[in-house]
Amino acid sequence: MTPPLMRSVFRTPRLHGHLRYRRQRSASVAPVVALLLVAVGVAACASGRSAPATEPASPRQAVIAELQAFQEGLGIERTGNFQRFSAAQDAVYRCYFTGLLELPASYEALQLIEPDEPSCPVDDTTHDLFFYPIEAVASGSSPVSPALAGAALERTLVVVPHEDFHNQPETTQASFDVAEAAATLVGFVAAREFASATYGDGSEPYRRLDREVDRFQLKSRIVNAYVRRLTEVYDAHDAGEVTRDDALARKAALYADFARECQASEPAASFNTCPAVMNNAGLAFDSTYTRHFPTWFEVYESLGRDTRATIVAFRRVLATGPHTEAELVDATRALRSRPSSAHRALLSFGDQ
What we know:
The chain has helices spanning 59-72, 153-166, 176-199, 204-209, 212-238, 244-263, 280-290, 293-302, 307-318, 325-337, 339-348, and strands at 19-23, 33-35, 92-99, 111-115, 127-134, 136-138. By secondary structure, the protein is of the alpha+beta class. It has one domain (19-348).
């Protein structure tokens, strides 16, 4: 699931009919890969029928096909994602929520309602809410839906490799948040490579994507720092060391500081520099992507920012199934300590 771009919360004061309610699965269960993707309308063949899945149905779909072919040279195996258009469903509506003084570790631990309407039917005086209309849910054969049309080209170029990386065989071995951070970095660097090769280093798409991975590294540091600071407040409240009113006041002050700091960051082309919603639900969602991102970024740096070597390295590490930060650090230590030899081995991986 890629980080959302919108900043909107819909709500009604009470629950109503036609709702599907569940609590997110634990981190030990492999996630359903959901994606916020860019775009593609339907183009009919001269006969009036939809174009075959192997033939791009629009200029944007042609770009996706070209990108997926390009990705194979970077170490991302072809998947069945984005091969056809489907108007069966415009979007999947999800209302994530959690307590006012509760910060789950990730989106998997948030509570969730899947309403039939674009609303978040939970009382926002008792819960922090995040409404997320997801344009598609990827399973390795995700179609392009009408709701994807109109997003920026840069968003498409980042999301396609992100989601295709989720469908590589190795990603199912690791915990979902470890894999999410890896897929996020892969999306940025693969998009940059494609923009360079396709549009040129002087093009607007390349210019906007050139430093996207560095922008997200900065976001990760900011988000992770405020996760720690807010968790300290909530833990103190749970331990009876501060009152509820005091905890809520500290929470408000920290989110105000958080907003000022992330809003001062350099704007990004394909993601929000701040959580889509500045509350516990929005922060838990974003921290899923940021928690392990700095560790993966260190691997990317140690390999000289070589995109193909990075992607192959990530796949090898994920095949070992790291589930915690300590396991991830152990699995990547050799790559960071001996980057030259690791780089040579990784560059030849897949050519044998």
